Amino acid sequence: MLPLDPQADRGRRAWVSCPNCDDSRGCAPCEQRRTCSDHWRYLLSNTGSLLHLQCPSCTHVWVHESGFGATRSLWNRITSGRPDPR
Known about the structure:
With 86 residues, the protein is an alpha+beta fold. The protein has helices at 28-31, 74-79, and strands at 13-14, 41-47, 50-54, 61-65.
């Protein structure tokens, strides 16, 4: 289990399902896509619409493309997870 990231701050939160633990399954507010006081994620940072998140339940860290206010082209969003070929 990873420790919480030093950038983790309860004041910066996001409501996105965790791909690792799926702790929000069965939660009525989460299933209705409403904010929930139990199943939020730390918003560590963002680059445009790309969110860097950490789950407080299992401490999993991942990147989520929100698509909201996207400032990057579709090609950049598709290839942003690829390692540098050099």
